[in-house]
Fold this protein.
Amino acid sequence: MKVLLSIPVAAILILSLGCGGSITSDPCTVVGLNISPPTATVNHAAAPPANSQSFGANPRFSGVCGAGTAVQINSNWTVSDPSVHLSATQGTMVTATCTAAVGSPVTVTATSADGRMLTGQAMLTCN
């Protein structure tokens, strides 16, 4: 009886080790961009700079990453509504200024400028 129970346990152990014979963690890989803050609300009628919100792009990782991996990424920035003006179209940070009230949240998109086509999005509500 003990032998019959040990066979499935041994099979599970062997399968969990994989072909390499040891359990390894996933490598640190950049898979996209995190935009910070992910959501924001500003009043378009407020005096500057209260009618604006700054956004930054940081790498989003999969796997196990060491310290020092949270650097900002130089990105190309766009918005889904022309009434939101950007301080720059490229950089690690951008300031989005609401010039009018918009009925639904505006999508702020960053795409990495280094050719890797990493993207991230945030939502900006212009009241």
Observations:
- The beta strands are 29-36, 39-42, 52-62, 75-79, 84-86, 90-91, 93-98, 106-112, 119-126.
